[in-house]
Amino acid sequence: MSSEYGCLVAFRIFSTIFVQNGYIHPDEYFQTTEIITGDVFGVIHDRPWEFNKNTPIRSIGLLYGIFGIPLYIAKWIFKLYKIPWNPFLLLFVFRSVTCAMSFITDYSLYKICKILKLKPNRYLLLLSSSYVIIVFGTKTFTNSLELALVSLLLWRVVDSMAISEKVLSAENEIRNMYAFRTSITDKVVMSRKLRLLPSHNFSHCLEIGTILAVGTFNRPTFLLFAVTPIFYWVSRGFYKNNNRFIKIFNIRIIVLFICTLPGIFIFILIDSFYYEHITENEANLVITPLNFIYYNIQPSNLAEHGIHFRMTHTIINMPLLFNVLALLFLGRLQFNSFIKIILKHHYHLLPNIYEVKTLMMANVFIPLILLSIFPHQEPRFLLPLLLPIVFSTCKYFSSHSMKNFKHILPVWCFSNIIGFIFYGYLHQAGITPMISHLFQDIKDATNTYVINSHTYSIPVGLLMIPKLNESLLYINQRHITVYDLGSSLDPNSLYDTVMNISQQITHKEELTVYFALSGPLTKQFESVSNASSLAYTKKNFFPHLSMESLRFYFTSMIDLFYHDNNMPYISLTELRDIFSLVLYKITIKTE
């Protein structure tokens, strides 16, 4: 591997563990770390509705396999060496796992290049320089696991295609060699040589079946990314021998289905026991992918999570994630040439559909179409397209191609730097440092109340507060309550809401309430609070950029530059405050 790739690998590892405080979406905590942390440590956590015991739509098996086992091992080691836990160490374990998982994509791409006798360096450089793998690929999303699983699937399918190509070429060569020989001896020799050829019909079948089972129980959307590789796996080799097409096609599908059954059965059992559907008194099986599909095919359910324009993935999310690669891929499709070939009936000029490059292009195009059917469309849903789109567009980054596209490399580098800074270092980046601060500040508090507004939800599991033990009724136990006010209230209403919540909390002693607020709303909130003589201290966590406060950023910047600025220079302190998360520690005297 080149030194450039080595530097990018080191940067990915370092930035994942020590730099990236960016918080992309609540699901990166609430579908993974909150559940596992709550179960392993027995701490207070926010368990989302997807994991309710009645009709769960998320499987627990893979989460325990990927995150639970390393966390149990770390817990044992920390206990052995008397190392105290804190939010940073907890995130260190989770992020180390996801960072390691991200290299499955690198390794899969490397193996594909080796199979096809391509030099892997340029492909790996393009992949590892993408902010998608550096930021999204190393977050604790189920989508990040899906990226790794799709990459593994593509590798095994490409390897199966190469094996079939090699075996069938040897078979045709043997048959051609003895085509005009009529003696019995020659026919016996030919038959013996044919029998010595390795079997290829079911190559990697068990591995692919296992990947299908794991991927489906991780996220059922995995099937949308798997449909193209699976078609190529079951249909490989038929362009050389079409005589037994239907028979072999059907047998491969049946055998592949059988190979998925052990994995499916294991996940169903794990989920059924975990969600307590199998007990001494009852035995009901839980099939979480079916619950997931049933939930998501109902438009009313999707509307609760946000309805998007059907072309959001194509027009917005593809350029957002892959920037210049999305445009290059569009050019790679060559729609104009394709239409001309069809209209002129020059079908011999059509690309060979059984080539790997066609598989990769199809595995971008087809999942994109299928995902666009659903009206809820988020950028992270497209993460598994990373490997095929890198493979399909890498030729444009050769020294020869860049003579014609001189600006392609600077645009690629600049756009990925911007993406890394925004999602890895700015977006909701004050949340995790604030949690580390709270962890220290509330160590001796019995009851903690945290209110947040215009920020993402706070993953309280990271605070590692033990659950209430009902057998210890006469011993003071720690408790935390979180009030998420969303992003709909203006600064004046926020003050009234915070005070109403505080007054509803009854306590005999002095009461402390924490209030986390996005920077651009703090000035108005403080002016209202100061008028009422509200006692508070505050701490800023910089940087923090909340898209939930977007309109307030504009008004704050206008006020800073034009209305409140009587000096010939801009106050860097005020600018810093705007792009911070502010935590107020409000003290209220109760009678």
TrEMBL record:
Example GO molecular function: alpha-1,2-mannosyltransferase activity
Annotated localization: Endoplasmic reticulum membrane
Enzyme Commission (EC) number: 2.4.1.-
Primary localization: endoplasmic reticulum
Keywords for this protein: Endoplasmic reticulum, Glycosyltransferase, GPI-anchor biosynthesis, Membrane, Transferase, Transmembrane, Transmembrane helix
GO CC annotation terms, alphabetical: endoplasmic reticulum membrane
Enzyme class of the recorded protein, top EC level: transferase
Biological process terms in GO annotation: GPI anchor biosynthetic process
Transmembrane intervals: 60-78, 90-110, 122-142, 222-239, 251-270, 315-335, 356-375, 409-426
Pathway noted in the entry: Glycolipid biosynthesis; glycosylphosphatidylinositol-anchor biosynthesis
Membrane-topology descriptor: Multi-pass membrane protein
InterPro entries with a match to the protein in the record: GPI_mannosylTrfase
Pfam family membership, one: Glyco_transf_22
Protein family (similarity comment): Belongs to the glycosyltransferase 22 family. PIGZ subfamily.
Protein name, entry field: Mannosyltransferase
Species whose genome carries this gene: Aphis gossypii (Cotton aphid)
